[in-house]
Amino acid sequence: KKASVKLNKDFKVADIDDRIYGSFIEHLGRAVYTGIYEPDHPTADEDGFREDVMELIKELDVPIVRYPGGNFVSGYNWEDGVGPVEDRPNRLELAWRTIETNEIGTNEFMKWAEKAGTDVMMAVNLGTRGIDAARNLIEYCNHPGGSYYSDLRKEHGYEKPYNIKTWCLGNEMDGPWQLGHKTAEEYGRLACETAKVMKQVDPDIEFVVCGSSHRNMPTFGEWEATVLEHTYEHVDYISLHQYFGHRTENLPKYLAKSVQMDDFIDSVIAICDYVKAKKKSDKEIYLSFDEWNVWFHSNQADQEMEPWAIAPPQLEDIYTFEDALVVGMMMMSLLKRADRVKMACLAQLVNVIAPIMTKEGGDAWKQTIFYPYYHGCKYGRGTVLEPVISCPTYDTEDFKEVPLVDTVTVMNEQKDELTIFAVNRDLEDSLVFEVELNGFEDYSVLEHIVMESEDVKARNTADNPDNVTPHTGGNATITGVKIVADLPKLSWNVIRLK
Ligand code: AHR
């Protein structure tokens, strides 16, 4: 079997916005407490942040982190998390049925983000609260001083405003599970008025308005159109969320899920452009795919959990090798539409459906899905090229003509490098992969990284953290303008050239 790709330096999809490699930390499970923050941990710094976790996050070089939720934000009183820690209340956290101690709040998280070298995408509560709490929060965060909330921030010990640029107008407001769930009309109106008021406090901010919680929501499509009718001139991005699971043990079907993600992205772009046309607007709405991942392993355990614990293990999916392939392909779906997908968040970052796991008082380690995300973060910055692909296909019950090879190429003109990401979806055979390059004379292969495993269910655990890791032994070679490589069956490949 053979797949071929033609690339031309001048045929570009778009420059990648670095924020496409964003992630997410929610007050949920052990993401914050015993995830990024554990004051008694041997590696804790002076603020109680785990430095072992910080190291792994720095290795990824995460550009932006969404905070504080997620479903959590729709019941959050941000005031609970500022001021003297000893005065902060324990609250019933209704989204995940736990106790939130509020030991970490806005200021502590902003401090963590600065240390981690990442920007913050802040969400406001449009579930149980609304315009008033949102305008107070942005005054607290972004106003320099001389007003009640900006002076309160100073009183709390944080002199300088944070100037947080990107704000999410609520979270998954289309979902019946959401605290304060709304119809598209109700939410559209509220999001519009909240955006207007927040912009009066700080005109330099940008907004993400809630799209659908996933592609199969019954209101999908209608929701986006209605919400954008209300908010078009006041927002910059619309959100998309998607999690995939492998519940049927049908691997070819699972590996084809990213086709659904491609379709989801194309559909949302079409809806944005429909509203643009209707409004005769010059403005383009971009996409913020601010929750994406595999999520299903922990569902059963979470259902059986006793409520009202403090930072219990929740959504602790332990990922397999096959999940890493799906995550790699989901990331490629984002890159393929880098012209419109400007931000995205792998959900989440630590312990909760996460590439990084920790043991309380113990080690931090990389899950299988860490690696494709890491490769994107490290080698996938620059410009996506428009390929011409010819490749064998297969059919599943969901999709026809799924290509056996999924691939994206990123050119980094600053570094004079080219990176080809590719997954071979074939369960049985390796595949000959040929790439014809135009405009990259004198390039040679730096390395061909491969992630493969005889056991598709192989995982990395606390006891065996390096069970599944990539290696550099791929056989890609270049002769003249043609790269030839074998892509092993079921493999994630990164072919780097310079
Ligand atoms: O990321 C976990 C949860 O998934 C988020 O809180 C919510 O927005 C989504 O349903």
UniProtKB/TrEMBL annotation:
Top-level taxonomic group: Bacteria
Gene3D superfamilies: Glycosidases (3.20.20.80), Golgi alpha-mannosidase II (2.60.40.1180)
EC number: 3.2.1.55
Summary of subunit composition and partner proteins: Homohexamer; trimer of dimers.
Protein name as catalogued: non-reducing end alpha-L-arabinofuranosidase
Record GO biological process: L-arabinose metabolic process; polysaccharide catabolic process
PANTHER family per the UniProt record, alphabetical: ALPHA-L-ARABINOFURANOSIDASE C (PTHR43576:SF3), ALPHA-L-ARABINOFURANOSIDASE C-RELATED (PTHR43576)
Keyword check for Hydrolase: yes
Source organism of the structure: Orenia metallireducens
Catalytic activity: Hydrolysis of terminal non-reducing alpha-L-arabinofuranoside residues in alpha-L-arabinosides
